[in-house]
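wait is this the right file?? whatever heres the structure
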């Protein structure tokens, strides 16, 4: 069929020129119509072939594009599903287990970090402890803040219970 894009554009250009020449000669010379009909028929046939080839390439490109879009949509759906699975909350037993494992891991590698789960707030805290003295060097969030958050939660619960 058609080898490459440059051949395609050359054939289209030739068909357009032939078609234009045929239309101008029709209006100026009526006696030469039978002699020009054969080249016009060839030019029209080539133009029809070119248009068919262009349409076929367009259909193939549209099919490829739709397939690519389907694949992209499937990948996005898989990513969304994975994200939903990752965002599922852990239950208290799982969190306690992970906390215990983290503390054991930190002890094995001689690290000074201790992890603690606060079920009242559903949050974790981390302490950096000096191994020699046992003194807390840094805590995130601080113990005082955790106590205040628990009290605020209790007060808010009591306030809402009285209002309702």
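ok assuming it is, sequence goes like this
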């Amino acid at each position: 069929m058609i080898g490459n894009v440059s051949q395609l554009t050359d054939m289209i250009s030739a068909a357009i020129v032939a078609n234009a020449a045929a239309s101008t000669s029709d209006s100026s010379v009526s006696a030469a119509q039978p002699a020009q009909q054969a080249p016009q028929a060839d030019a029209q046939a080539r133009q029809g072939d070119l248009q068919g080839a262009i349409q076929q390439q367009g259909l193939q490109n549209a099919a490829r594009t739709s397939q690519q879009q389907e694949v992209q949509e499937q990948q996005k759906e898989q990513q969304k599903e994975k994200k939903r699975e990752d965002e599922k909350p852990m239950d208290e037993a799982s969190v306690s287990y992970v906390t215990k494992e983290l503390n054991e891991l930190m002890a094995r590698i001689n690290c000074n970090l201790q992890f603690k789960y606060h079920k009242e707030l559903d949050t974790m805290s981390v302490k950096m402890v000096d191994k020699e003295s046992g003194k807390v060097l840094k805590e995130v969030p601080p113990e005082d803040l955790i106590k205040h958050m628990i009290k605020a939660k209790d007060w808010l619960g009591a306030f809402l219970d009285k209002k309702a």
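Residues 92-163 form one domain. so i think its the right one actually
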